[in-house]
Specification:
The chain has about 170 residues and is an all-alpha fold. Helix content is about 60%, strand content about 0%.
């Protein structure tokens, strides 16, 4: 199997895209890509905690090697403050005779970027209103718009979307 290679540590606005890249890299590095996707997707399920991710088994199959590769890849790209948290959690695991799982590290990373629902809604609204087509590239703007909407937990009211979209479209001469 291939090593897991991740992009540079993202800034908050780019986290969702970076996180999708993590999923793609894990899946590509696995000898069982479909099952690897299900393993990595479990992190987004409600009720998933740091402790529930300690096992490297999924439906009876071991993903210890892939999980260890994920741990190395995440630690490599993480900034110092996250690396410190990882080292601390690894030390706690060692004291308990356990190994820290890569999925647990990814859970820490997700927690680092997590915002409250209210913060997320405000950020998403501000981001939507700030979307522009650089250099008059309407296709790039539409792709960014669609990507932003696809990542929303709950889409805003239709009238808000329409107003936001029309505000941007007025800038174009068709």
């Amino acid at each position: 199997a291939e090593p897991i290679v991740l992009g540079a540590w993202p800034r908050p606005p780019g986290y969702r895209r970076w996180r999708m890249g993590v999923v793609d890299s894990v899946v590509a590095a696995s000898v069982r890509p479909r099952t690897a996707f299900k393993v990595i997707a479990q992190l987004t399920k409600r009720g998933t905690t740091y402790d529930t991710l300690s096992s490297t088994k999924f439906r009876g199959k071991s993903f210890a090697t892939l999980d260890a590769k994920l741990a190395v890849a995440l630690t490599k790209v993480a900034p110092q403050d996250i690396q410190w948290q990882i080292r601390l959690k690894k030390q706690e695991a060692i004291v308990k005779g356990r190994m820290m799982a890569g999925c647990q590290i990814l859970h820490l990373v997700d927690s680092y970027f997590r915002t409250t629902d209210a913060d997320a809604r405000i950020f998403e609204t501000e981001y939507r209103f700030s979307l522009t087509a650089r250099g008059g590239n309407l296709a790039a703007f539409l792709n960014s718009w669609d990507e932003t909407l696809a990542g929303l937990g709950e889409p805003p009211a239709e009238n808000i979307l329409e107003t936001s979209f029309l505000r941007q479209m007025r800038k174009y001469k068709i």
